[in-house]
Amino acid sequence: MTDFERIIRALLDAAVEFVIIGGVAATVHGSARLTSDLDVAYGRSRKNIRRLAAALAPLEPYLRGAPAGLPFRFDEATIQHGLNFTLTTSAGALDCLGEVSGLGGYDAILPRTIEITLFGMACRCLDLEALLAAKRAAGRPKDLEVIAELEAIREEM
Question: Taking the model in full, what pTM does it have?
Answer without folding.
Answer: 0.93
